[in-house]
Design goal:
Residues 24-58 are annotated as: Disordered. The protein is α+β, with helices and mostly antiparallel strands. Among the domains are: 61-167, Arginyl tRNA synthetase N-terminal domain (Gyrase A, domain 2, 2-Layer Sandwich), CATH 3.30.1360; 241-291, no CATH class; 300-377, Nucleic acid-binding proteins (OB fold (Dihydrolipoamide Acetyltransferase, E2P), Beta Barrel), CATH 2.40.50. It is built from twelve helices and 16 strands. It has helices at residues 20-23, 33-57, 61-81, 87-93, 115-119, 123-140, 164-175, 207-225, 241-257, 261-264, 271-286, 288-291; strands spanning 3-7, 99-100, 108-111, 148-154, 157-162, 191-195, 229-233, 300-307, 321-326, 332-337, 347-351, 356-357, 360-361, 365-367, 370-372, 375-377. The strands form five sheets. It has a five-stranded antiparallel sheet, with no helix packed on it. Strand 4 and strand 5 (157-162) form a beta hairpin. Helix 3 packs across helix 6 and helix 9 packs across helix 11 (271-286).
């Protein structure tokens, strides 16, 4: 996976677009009028470029709407309640409380609970009266393209509905290449490292690997766009178990076939394909299933603690033996069976009580007065040829 981490940065200069005007300042006191005029035009053009870059690269539609809504709220407060709230109190009561609507009623929501204290009225009544005043302001400005189409009130909240024309206007900003809406944001002092991909040198890329590469590359571009200095790090996986397993298989083949490494290389494949094939083959060779055959789920290894020559019951068959087993974690079991060929301290295959085995649940069984817990398996039952 990828990791993102911040690293300490060196001191950075001021924003790039704060300097162009100064570059055009001429300190010669003997400039003629044409020179001064040309200088002024250059300064004006630079200033316009600066404003366009700042407006577009840092454009915040929600912030713009909040400011417009706050102005409407201030006018409504004065009109309805004759209240002139100082800037600090207004920011605390209105600006800081404004946010995106969470109930599907408009796009911007303003709670009136703090305002109610300044207006000496219940929040719901304050919201109703202010909403009516704001709608009146909007109707009086019907000849102006206003971003707020209407407002309504509900439960002590004022909900502002934005016009579709205003919301759709963002598309024009994005598509207009001259506006620079998608230009990179001003440089910051942050330096960020994005570490991603880490391809396996012995394995072909598939869609899962490409997903990680795409995500990492996207993060690099996004962090660069918002003004960070980005270091994209990619560590190739040229050491590890996959390399060791390939080397083991190549040495094994060279030893067994008495050939050189050059003779093992498949010329019909690229080096990457050949390494990938070798890696896959080494995984098969080193898989535990290659050296073991135990198809029965639930079979465990147990140690024989004791065994009797025959069943103690008088009417029991002489073939019955009573075996005491230890199958780990200090768990002991007594098994009655007819098997032989093992002695005390031998390791045997055992199926404990409660295990699903061959479609059935193993349960305790009674043998002539003794209870047998579980099953001992012979080599043939395990599918192993004893010869």
């Amino acid at each position: 996976m990828f990791r993102v981490k911040s690293i300490s940065t060196k001191r950075c200069s001021s924003h790039l677009f704060l300097n162009p005007i100064n570059k055009h300042i001429n300190t010669n006191n003997n400039d003629n009028k044409n020179g001064i005029k040309g200088q002024s035009e250059d300064k004006m053009k630079a200033s316009q470029r600066t404003k366009v870059e700042r407006r577009n690269s840092e454009y915040d539609m929600e912030k713009e709407v909040r400011n417009i809504g706050a102005r409407l709220m201030r006018i409504a407060l004065k009109e309805v309640y004759g209240t002139q709230i100082d800037e600090s109190a207004f920011a605390n009561a209105v600006k800081e409380k404004m946010g995106q609507s969470k109930h599907g009623r408009g796009q911007i929501s303003v709670p009136c609970f703090v305002l109610a204290k300044h207006c000496s009225s219940p929040p719901s009544l304050v919201a109703d009266k202010l909403a009516e005043s704001i709608n009146s302001q909007l109707r009086s400005q019907s000849n102006v393209d206003h971003p707020i189409q209407k407002v309504d009130s509900c439960g002590g909240y004022i909900n502002m509905h934005l016009s579709t024309e205003y919301l759709g206007g963002i598309i024009g900003k994005i598509l207009n290449k001259e506006d620079g809406y998608l230009d990179q944001l001003p440089k910051t002092k942050a330096r960020v490292m994005v570490e991603y991909s880490q391809p396996n040198t012995h394995k072909a890329f598939h869609v899962g690997h490409m997903r990680n590469v795409a995500l990492g590359d996207c993060l690099v571009r996004l962090y660069e766009h918002i003004g960070n200095e980005v270091i994209a790090a990619n560590y190739f996986g040229d050491e590890g178990s996959h390399v060791a397993s390939c080397l083991w298989l190549l040495q094994k083949k060279m030893s067994e076939q008495d050939v050189t490494l050059e003779e093992l290389v498949c010329e019909s494949m690229t080096k990457g394909e050949w390494l990938g094939t070798t890696y896959a083959e080494s995984k098969r060779w080193l898989d535990l299933a290659t050296y073991t055959h135990l198809p029965f789920k639930g079979v465990v290894v147990a140690k024989v603690l004791s065994m009797s020559e025959m069943h103690p019951g008088v009417d029991a068959s002489r073939n019955y033996r009573v075996i005491t087993l230890d199958y780990g974690l200090a768990r002991h079991a007594t098994v009655v069976c007819t098997g032989d060929g093992f002695r005390v301290n031998d390791l045997v295959s055992y199926v404990p009580v409660g295990t699903h085995f061959q479609g059935k649940v193993v349960e305790p069984r009674h043998f002539k007065g003794l209870v047998s817990h579980g099953i001992l398996l012979s080599a043939r039952e395990l599918g192993i040829d004893p010869s």
